[in-house]
Amino acid sequence: MKSQNLIYSDRVVYNIFLIMKSVEGRVRKACEVYDLLDEGDNIAVGVSGGKDSIALLNSLAGYKRYSRKKYSLTALIVDPGFDNVDTDYSLVVKMCENLEIPVHIRRSNLGEVIFITRKEKNPCPLCARMRRGMLHDMTLAAGCNKIALGHHMNDAVETLFLNLFHEGRLESFKPKTYLSRKNITMIRPLVFCEESQIISYVSRNGLPVVKNRCPADGNTERENIKKFIADKEQEYPGFLKRTFNAMQRGGISGF
Q: What is the pTM of this model?
């Protein structure tokens, strides 16, 4: 029985190792396939505190140890100030300290502007644009030439269907985008990662996740698309990956 327990423990440790490495391995693949990194890059990482951005920051820090192209990282946080309350990012700051990554936090009144002043019925697009604008300014102020965002494979496919269903466009976001007005490059190193892999990676590593206080959380059009994809995944197993592969074969949005 003891030997069986040891075998089981070894198998568990090995499975955890595979999960941890699968995310970093897919980040490495994305960086190579889409040429996301250059020697000497100063990369700002947009950190919301959610699982995706936390996984992105940790995996880029891990990949940094063996990447052939040397780069530095800086964590940038925009606090939307939902309910006029400052979000507690202390655990994220501690994580950054452990990884020896500088972190900058900008407090804002995004929540008040979007939900109280403007009373937006569809708040997500405006919130995303305003937050990205702040992140771009913070990127320049931090002396960084690139900004990394935590969008993954599910996000790419969801965006495709959002644009198709609502605007009749076969388009998603790009893995790499040069922003000429700011002279910075936006990269998305998690595009080969499925959301389920990111959830496992964060859980197995015990990474800190900040609860989303957004009043619209879970009640958006993207959530409807997420459910649509989940239903199709049940009906046609592999639907998500095949759709993403089709985006790549078709060269949609640079994939």
A: 0.89
